[in-house]
Design goal:
Order of helices and strands: HHHHHH
Number of helices: 6
Helix content: 55-70%
Radius of gyration: 17 Å
Length: 149
């Protein structure tokens, strides 16, 4: 197999694992935000910060893990931000494990349940991560967050 496929695959998998580190880096700061600010909506049609993370968890499990043929894990019972972050990370580890089991040969030829090539789908997930992290950063920037000590 072409060395560039292996390198490209490695870079995409590294980028996918970045979400685990990013969420862990956010955790101590998020725990300092008062609950009322985590749950407040800037306007009725926009999700709260907490809901944004719940939506990310839903996407990780109901879209990404499911598309790769993995098991589901309901998010309905998650009531704390720490639990939601743990759930997202567990889903991402599942995605990474499934993709790491794919051979270099199958990386560009195997498809997801909807017929999308794995390499393309994995790249799409990295784009989704970027959009999620950008939305969180924008929300934090726009909000007047009062951190707890």
């Amino acid at each position: 197999m072409d060395r560039s496929v292996s390198t490209s695959r490695s870079l995409i998998l590294d980028q996918l694992s970045f979400l685990l580190d990013e969420l862990e880096a956010q955790r101590p700061w998020l725990h300092r935000i008062p609950v009322f600010q985590l749950e407040a909506k800037p306007m009725e049609s926009a999700p709260s910060l907490f809901e944004m993370y719940v939506n990310m968890s839903r996407q990780e499990w109901e879209v990404h893990v499911a598309e790769l043929g993995g098991p589901s894990a309901p998010v309905a019972s998650l009531t704390t931000l720490s639990g939601v972050i743990d759930h997202i990370q567990k889903g991402r580890r599942s995605v990474l494990e499934m993709l790491q089991r794919v051979s270099d040969t199958d990386w560009e030829t195997a498809t997801t349940g909807r017929g999308i090539f794995l390499a393309e789908y994995a790249f799409q997930i990295t784009q989704s991560d970027g959009n999620f992290l950008k939305a969180i950063a924008e929300r934090l920037h726009e909000s007047v967050i009062k951190f707890n000590q």
